[in-house]
Specification:
By secondary structure, the protein is an alpha+beta fold. The protein has 8 helices and 14 strands.
C-alpha cells in the first residue's frame, strides 16, 4: 500500500545530502485518513507551521500539502498519511544555508491493527529507562529526531506492553513513547506541563477541549511517579489511537473510571 510523493513526484528516494537525513533537520505529522479525507487536518497544519517557525523553515503552502495528501488518500477507506518537511539539501555542516530549498515528503501507510481490548479493557504501561531529552527551544514540536523514542521502544517486547512511559532527567513524567498522558486524581484531570520536553500532541489538545466542554478543566502541571501511583485513572492518547485507558503501571492496577469513559465518549461524538 505504501506510496510516496517527494516534492510532488512519485519516487522512492531523496537526495543523500538532505539535512533531514543528515541532521534530523525537519518535522513531521502523522495524519489519519478516513474515507479519503485527512482527519484533524487544520490542527496538524497549525502545528506543522508552528514547528517550521521555530526551526526557521519555510513551510509549504497548505493548499499544496492538502492537494498532495488528497492525491495519496484517494480511494483509501482507512489509512495514514505522513508528512515530512526538511530544510532540504544544503551541503555539509550544521549551519543552515539561507538559500536551501525545502523538501516535502508525503507517504501513505496502512491503518494499524489495534486490538479492541485496548479500548475496552485498557493497556499495561511499561516504565521506560530512556529519558526524554530536555530542550526548552524544541519542547512541544514534532522534530524528526526521535532517537529517545526509538531507544525507549526497544526496551520491551511489544506483546507484553502496548505503550511505554517516559520521564525526563529530573524524573518528571513527560509522555508516552508515542502518546501524551493524562491522570485523574481526586476528581481532577491532569497532564504534564510540556514547557521543557515532550510533544504537544493533536489529541492532547482535543482532550483538553473535550474536558473543558464537559466542565472538567485540565490542569497542566508537573507530574511525578508518586502522582501516577496515587492516580485513580490514567489514559494515553494520540491522533491515531485516540484514547487508550491504562489498567496497569509497574505494580499498580487502575480502573477505567467515569472521567476516562466520558472523555472517550466525547471524542467519539466529535470525530
Amino acid at each position: 500500500m505504501k506510496m510516496l510523493l517527494v516534492n510532488g513526484e512519485e519516487k522512492l528516494y531523496i537526495d543523500a545530502n538532505d539535512r533531514g537525513l543528515a541532521y534530523g533537520d525537519g518535522l513531521f505529522e502523522t495524519i489519519e485518513i478516513n474515507l479519503s479525507r485527512p482527519v484533524y487536518w487544520e490542527q496538524h497544519i497549525n502545528r506543522l507551521n508552528h514547528g517550521c517557525d521555530i526551526l526557521g523553515i519555510a513551510c509549504p503552502d497548505e493548499p499544496l500539502l492538502l492537494q498532495e495528501c488528497l492525491q495519496l488518500a484517494l480511494g483509501i477507506n482507512k489509512g495514514i498519511v505522513k508528512i515530512i518537511i526538511t530544510r532540504g539539501s544544503a551541503g555539509r555542516g550544521y549551519r543552515p544555508a539561507h538559500d536551501s530549498k525545502i523538501s516535502r515528503i508525503l507517504s501513505l501507510h496502512e491503518w494499524p491493527d489495534i486490538p479492541e481490548n485496548y479500548y475496552l479493557k485498557g493497556i499495561r504501561l511499561y516504565a521506560c529507562e530512556t529519558p526524554v531529552s530536555i530542550n526548552t527551544k524544541l519542547a512541544g514540536i514534532k522534530t524528526l529526531c526521535r532517537l529517545d523514542q526509538v531507544l525507549a521502544q526497544s526496551e520491551w517486547n511489544e506483546n507484553d506492553y502496548a505503550e511505554g512511559l517516559m520521564l525526563d532527567a529530573n524524573k518528571l513524567v513527560i509522555e508516552g513513547t508515542k502518546t501524551n498522558i493524562f491522570i485523574v486524581r481526586g476528581g481532577q484531570l491532569k497532564t504534564p506541563l510540556l514547557n521543557h520536553a515532550g510533544i504537544k500532541g493533536i489529541m492532547r489538545d482535543i482532550v483538553i477541549a473535550a474536558a473543558d466542554y464537559l466542565d472538567m478543566p485540565v490542569i497542566e502541571t508537573e507530574i511525578t511517579c508518586t502522582d501516577l501511583e496515587e492516580a485513580d485513572e490514567i489514559f494515553v492518547c494520540n491522533s491515531i489511537i485516540k484514547i487508550w485507558p491504562v489498567n496497569a503501571y509497574r505494580d499498580q492496577q487502575y480502573v477505567i473510571g467515569d472521567i476516562t469513559r466520558n472523555i472517550m465518549f466525547r471524542i467519539d461524538q466529535i470525530q
